Amino acid sequence: MEGRYVRLEPLEAAHADMLFLAASGQGSEERFRWLPETPPDRAAFDVWLEGASTSPDPLFFAVVDQATGRAEGRQALMRMEPAHGTCEIGHIMWGAALQRTRMATEALFLFADQIFGLGYRRFEWKCNDLNVPSKRAAERFGFRFEGVFRQHMVVKGANRDTAWFAMTDRDWQQVKHVYEKWLSPDNFDHDRQQRKPLRF
To answer: How far apart are CA 138 and CA 144, in angstroms?
Structure first.
């Protein structure tokens, strides 16, 4: 999946060195706080990558910076139910180079555009209800809050109440052009700072 700023490549061994650096760099504890795994050492990371790169669901992709060719993060399509037309984005780990950048927004956009282009009806975002930054991001990206599933999971030995967000194909018809306008190079100054915020 090709964008202006990033491309999404099926996760494979060739991404290992760069992705490990992105995963284990400064701020790794916070990046992995809400993920099912912990900040990895290299041996654990290689074991994880071997499994993740061959998994059909979740289906993992590396987020590659178009300018540098470096894999700076990962994300996955998961719980894909073609019969019902539903799919979820998950396992998001955006390294420091992606966080709060137009690259991260485009990475989400490329997934949504792909899913709805394939005829899916519903695209979901779920997170721990205590994960305020993730909930804030979901709403910024145009997902609508649908409620909280209490005592939904146990993650890392602790209860997880799960906040559910989603956008539908009808929502996408309205928000796609907002993404495209925001992602236009004209919306960014020489320091890559947005001129106008992403608002739906």
So the answer is: 8
Going across the sheet that includes 6-10, the strands are 6-10, 59-65, 71-81, 86-94, 122-128, 158-168, 144-155
| 36: number of Cβ within 10 Å | 11
Ramachandran angles phi, psi of 135, nearest 5°: -65, -40
Distances (CA, A) of 23 to 51, 141, 198: 16, 23, 27
| pTM strictly above 0.85 | yes
Asked if 130 contacts 148 with a C-beta cutoff of 8 angstroms, the reply is no
Q: Which residues neighbour 163 within 8 Å (Cβ) at sequence distance 6 or greater?
A: 126, 127, 128, 129, 131, 135, 138, 145, 147, 148
User: For 150, what's the count of Cα atoms within 13 Å in the CB-facing half-sphere?
Assistant: 0
pLDDT in tens, 21-60: 999 878 888 889 999 988 889 999 999 999 999 999 999 9
Q: Is the pLDDT of residue 148 over 90?
A: yes
CB neighbour class for 102 (10 Å; exposed up to 12, middle 13-18, buried from 19): buried
